[in-house]
Design brief:
- With 123 residues, the chain is mainly alpha-helical.
- It has one domain.
- The protein has helices spanning 26-35, 57-64, 75-120, and strands at 39-41, 52-54.
- The protein is elongated.
């Protein structure tokens, strides 16, 4: 109880089993995710009431150039893209917070200067 279960289909993600590792640019992945068409759809064999949500495999392959086929999206690749996009969003948030802090400092300095000018102005 409480253990992970993945059946025999669970892809191994052990670093020792991998080769040719390459860094990615999370901001670029985020931009690709933003541009990726996402739709709801159903498989032709399913009844009309059953809907799914996601990208088309061909669009995914074209956007990220990963996986071995443009007919399916390997779940591990979709997870990796999602995690990279989250990293890209995190960096944008950190950058925006830093910019916001700098702007607040500038505003406080301007307000201090304005108050000093107003205090010195004749009435």
């Amino acid at each position: 109880m409480g253990k992970e279960y993945c059946s025999d289909m669970c892809p191994r993600s052990d670093r020792n089993l991998k080769a040719d590792l390459r860094a990615i640019d999370p901001a670029h992945v985020l931009a690709q995710v933003v541009a990726l068409p996402i739709t709801t759809w159903r498989y032709k064999k399913d009844p009309p009431a059953i809907r799914h949500l996601g990208p088309m495999a061909q669009d995914f392959k074209a956007a990220f150039a990963i996986g071995g086929s443009d007919r399916m999206i390997f779940p591990l690749d979709a997870t990796g893209v999602s995690l990279a996009a989250i990293q890209g969003l995190h960096q944008r948030l950190v950058d925006a917070e830093e910019e916001n802090a700098a702007l607040r400092q500038q505003l406080a300095e301007l307000e201090r200067r304005l108050a000093a000018i107003e205090a010195e102005a004749p009435r």
